Amino acid sequence: MGDVAQMITEERSVQSVTLVVADSRPLLLRGLEHICSEEPGFEVVAACARGDATLEALRTRKPDVLILDATLPPSGGLWVLRQMRREKLPTRAVLLADHPDDRHVLEAVRLGVGGILLPDMTPESLLRCVRTVHAGEQWLESQAVARLLNRRPRGEVALRQLASGLTPRQIEIVRLATEAISTREIAARLMVTEGTVKVHLHNIYEKLQVDGRVGLVLLVMKQGRL
User: Fold this and answer.
1) Beta-bridge mates of residue 21
2) Cβ 87 vs Cβ 60: under 8 Å
3) Please, what's the largest Cα pairwise distance for the chain?
4) What is the rounded distance in angstroms from the CA atom of residue 88 to the CA atom of residue 106?
5) CA dist., res. 157 & res. 160, Å (int)
6) CA-to-CA distance for 54 and 72, rounded, in angstroms?
7) Could you tell me which residues come within 8 angstroms of residue 220 by beta carbon, excluding any fewer than 6 positions away?
């Protein structure tokens, strides 16, 4: 029994996700800390109210994921993302965008943010987002992406401009992927396996010469002249 207990403990340790949460508003900061700390397999290693303290925590604690307020003082969440990129910090970031400005969302994506969440998120959405980002995938809140992609009529124009190099099924997958739907959800909607969707996405990325789903979103934005 002792060996079994040790194996379970070691497995949990391997699967654990370490986080830094950063928000200048004490109530929200404590709320984020509580939600994440209560989730099995999650460990909050620092809670910060300023950008400089956040960067120091990233350097010293080396967490897996950062949950970052877009308005974090003194210079905002984008400043933190820029510093992370400049210093090549490995932590993946989730940006909390209270009032998502199109340029800010686009800049965050360009800076490599792993996830973007809006203020009406549920605790369950937050936790799913963190797990998705920790797994190396992107989580772009559908409303935030829609603000950028579905401006009448630019989103559809962008897709039509890309269509000449893609099959009808690939165009369908591009449309779903830019709606911030997970690979599993795309597979369910199309009634195919998740592996089949991944193969299609790989071929789409190769054809369009983009680096993953975020690159695909940026390309659609560019084609739509956003």
Assistant:
1) 47, 67
2) no
3) 63
4) 20
5) 5
6) 10
7) 149, 155, 158, 159, 162, 174, 178
Pure H helices in the chain? 2-15, 26-38, 51-61, 77-86, 102-110, 123-134, 142-149, 154-162, 168-177, 183-190, 194-208, 212-223
Tokens of 33: 């800390």
3-class secondary-structure state, position 144: helix
pTM recorded for the entire structure = 0.66
Q: pLDDT tens digits, residue range 101-138?
A: 556 777 787 788 888 887 778 899 899 999 989 998 87
pLDDT digits (tens, 9 = 90+) for 177-219: 876 667 888 999 999 999 999 999 999 888 888 777 767 776 7
Number of Cβ within 10 Å of residue 79's Cβ equals 15
Angle at which helices 154-162 and 142-149 pack, to 10 degrees? 80
CA distance 118 to 86: 26
Peptide bond into 74 cis (omega under 30): yes
Instruction: Give 190's strand partners.
Output: none
Which run of H or of E encompasses 18?
Answer: strand 17-22
Which three-class secondary structure state does DSSP give residue 181?
A: coil
